[in-house]
Amino acid sequence: MSKLFFISDIHGSLYYLKKVLEIYESEKADYIIILGDELYHGARNPLPKDYNPKEVAELLNTYKNKIIAVRGNCDSEVDEMVLEYPMMAPYSIVLYNGRRLFLTHGHIYDRDKLPNLSSGDAIIYGHIHVPLAEKQNNIFVINPGSITFPKEGNPNSYGILENNIFKIKGLEGNVIKEISFSE
Fold first, then answer.
1. Which of 10, 12, 67, 137 lies at a 20 to 30 A Cα distance from 50?
2. How large is the average pLDDT for residues 37-60?
3. Which CATH number is associated with domain 4-180?
4. Pair 118, 95: CB distance under 8 Å
């Protein structure tokens, strides 16, 4: 069974991307799932630490065969011209141990506007920069938070899905939230 590594809302920060890719390597995950907002900081955000969209794209491209990505509200068509993997779809679906994982950024679908999912499926999204792991009407609703701009006093964070357990971790490795798909 694959070990999946989830990140969202890089917003062009070379500093945080390098940190999280070191964690990806140490976690020995099989794939990186990027839930949007890869290269640009967006008009509502300040410039992130070590803002460098060009180098962020170059670094992400070194992992192109391991990335599954969706489009965020700050992503544009020009981004796909420099990124060497598809990232313009508003959502992607991954099958994981008999359930659908609906991957999206969160500006179209989220916990308040769920797509059509079956009992036991999951929606995993970014956008709000707040870690979330809950069950809503037998649908798993998960947000790994943001690696660059966490909100509501949360730490910079990412997600790991392994053996039917989704853990949201701070960059120091501490578990912030956890949910089991066996529940």
1. 67
2. 92
3. 3.60.21.10
4. no
